[in-house]
Target: Cytochrome P450 2J6-like
Amino acid sequence: MGHIPLVVLCGFEAVQEALINHSEDFVERPLGHFLKALAQEKGIIFSNGHTWKQQRKFGLATMRKLGLGKKGMEHQVEEEAHQLVETFARAKGHSINGKEFKVSLFPNALTIHVTDPLTTLPLYILFPRLMESLPGPHKKVLAYTETVRSFVKEEIQQHKEKHAVHDPQDFIDFYLFHMEKQSTDEPNSTYNEENLAQCISDLFLAGTETTATALQWALLLMANHPDIQEKVQKEVEDTLGSSQSFSYQDRKRLPYTNAVIHEILRAYYVLFVGIPRKCMKDVNILGFLIPKGTHVIADFRSVLLDPKQWEKPQDFNPNHFLDQDGSFVEREAFLPFGAGARVCLGELLARIELFIFFTSLLRAFSFELPEGVKELNAKPIFGGTLHPHPYKLCAVPRCSTS
Ligand code: HEM
Model:
């Protein structure tokens, strides 16, 4: 790439060997002009070294304190799912736009929907000076980022004025409390308002469009595969019956539904390549020397469609995650959330959200093609995420649950 060597890791074996078996050697992000302008080397996604370690550790710990993986947060996700069901119900079975719904990252917090494709990003990385003077989506992304950051800073100010840090209720309270506590005993601390603002922007950037896109694929695929949709609905009905509430734990009792969700994330990978990494020292991967400083991109698409790993990689086939008895099986090459030290920080939250939203929606509705439509276009559009073409479908209320 320009004068910097770039290696693309293709297939499960290469990605596993580099990102998992040599995790620490590929832990850094290469930060060119665009990424430095985007995040100022702060926060989690585009920071490195000590800053990244501290911010990531804090982010993970705080998400757990806020109830991730516990009933509290799941209950809030359920509330969000309930609101989405109500929104769809208002259409009374008439066709609705598949892009209409948004997924809230932290329930009851803010939502953001970035839709402009990052089509000029590669050009920006190759010709930063030239691109700086040209208009294009990369400029919009920078402008969005600035808007989100100043909005977040206002939020931080309001949190400080409320003095709620001693009874922390959300991520910002926890962070401010930690800042107050650590100022004297941690001389190398990176806990400050700039990093806080960037962490929040990162969580919005990484956590909203991704999950929303996966859900858009889920509904499109259910409309295109009514046989699979019916099997999910039958399993959910037979297992959960009329009980209103269910939890992420219930996925263990719903192997087919769980397999369908995994297959959606496999066959319609939301991020087809990982966020770039940099090689920290000379490393030998499967007999190839990757010199220190090389930029490395993991092609997750090639892992999720690797013919050595998947029986029918090009087909949408939930059996990839089921054994002969219909029990759910984990697959090593299922890496839609990346791998190694930089694996997606929101993986568990995303899994909980997708399971609860998907199951709630399929309990309440059958997703059908609008009259006259034979099939929805399942070819992805390349943008910040791989998302479907705009589509309409009908959410027909199901008698048994309405
Ligand atoms: C379907 C949903 C999602 C998918 C497919 C997804 C996928 C990914 C992938 C492929 C990476 C890059 C990993 C690498 O460099 O190898 C990543 C990073 C990241 N994701 Fe996600 N993600 C999803 C949802 C979320 C959510 C809900 C959050 C936050 C609440 C989140 C936060 C992050 C963060 C902070 C990083 C950067 C981690 C780091 O640099 O240390 N993601 N994600």
Notes: The first strand starts at residue 6 and ends at 10. The pocket of protoporphyrin IX containing FE is lined by residues 44-45, 56, 105, 202-203, 206-207, 210-211, 214, 270-271, 274-275, 300, 336-339, 342-346, 349-350 (CB under 6 Å). Residues 102-119 have pLDDT under 50 and may be disordered. The domain at 6-401 is CATH 1.10.630.10 (Cytochrome p450).
